[in-house]
Amino acid sequence: MKLFGYPSPTAITSLIILGALLSACSKEAENTERGGRGSWGARELPVITAPVERAPLIDAIKSVGTARAQQSVTLFPESAGVVTFAKLAPDAFVERGEVLLVLDDRDEALAVRQAHVELSESKRVLDRYNSLNATEANISQSMIDTAQSNVDLSEIRLSQAKVELSRRSVKAPFSGRIGITDVEIGDRVNTTTVVTTLDDRRVLLVDFTVPESFIGRVVTNLKVQARQWESPDDSTEGTVVAVDSRVDASTRAFRARAAIDNIADTLRPGMAFEIDASIEKGDYLSVPELSVQWGADGPYVWSTLDNRAQRAQVEMIRRGNGRMLIRGEIAEGDRVIIEGIQSVRPGMKIKDINVTQETAKTPDIDNADRG
């Protein structure tokens, strides 16, 4: 029978060494765990930030329209006859009321002369009757009334004769430039013959269509840019002068009219223009596009508060030109993180490289000013 005794000194020594090793490993693991939990508070994460700015939200309207003169007319003669005078040089400027064409008016001129004679005779008869009555002659009132009626009728006949004479000429109804014509002196024309066209092109009008969503924002006096369809680099400023009172049910758009100054006379009616208009829809916060991240709750940004990272939920409004218009839990002037975002955690202590560099440059500037 074998009896068990006390362990040998060698075994006891081995157990003591093993226990010491286990205790050391446990303390090291505990220290490592504590260091990991506190590492975010102990070290600074270098990041690059950008300021939160405020910018307008601008909607752009692009439409195409055809220009026309602010006043334009096609001239016809009011009666038929042979042309005896014509001032119809193409593209010549004429003043309002200037005579452009005259038809043979000999008969009409004689009719005016005859009406003048008849009116003069009627007035003499009436004056004679009135003079005789002043000397107590017995001129009946009916004779005086008849003489007065003859005077009135003679004045009417004279006016009619003048109207007929005026119809033998064509005058410019407004100042403008004449178009090309085929009418010449000696031609026989009638009331359907086109004499010429007349355009007042000092201002051009361009009609263009606008989506119904812009009702109330496209208004008179709104500034627009007009670009020639064939020369997009040539831009001219225009002004909206009229807005239609209804929306086209088939296109869901309404018509607007822009006026383009053409005092330099470099543009012509009939040209095609692209109309660009910018409509402001309010101001929003603007941040670099890189600063906006996506999470389970939607878009957000990392902002800085007392050198600590802070997550702020935002709503995206519009993206453009590398920036994002947003609104949310930040304010103008705050700074958002744009580089180093992947390592950021809420409450983490950060080191803003931009601010550090600006601070480092300040003493040099102050010293230079003192020098």
UniProtKB/TrEMBL annotation:
Cited PROSITE patterns: PROKAR_LIPOPROTEIN (PS51257)
Gene3D superfamilies noted in UniProt: 2.40.30.170, 2.40.420.20, 2.40.50.100, Helix hairpin bin (1.10.287.470)
Domain of life: Bacteria
One example GO MF annotation: efflux transmembrane transporter activity
GO CC entries: efflux pump complex
Domain CusB-like beta-barrel: 206-276
NCBIfam families: RND_mfp
UniProt record similarity statement: Belongs to the membrane fusion protein (MFP) (TC 8.A.1) family.
PANTHER family linked: BLL4320 PROTEIN, MULTIDRUG RESISTANCE PROTEIN MDTA
Protein name according to UniProt: Efflux transporter, RND family, MFP subunit
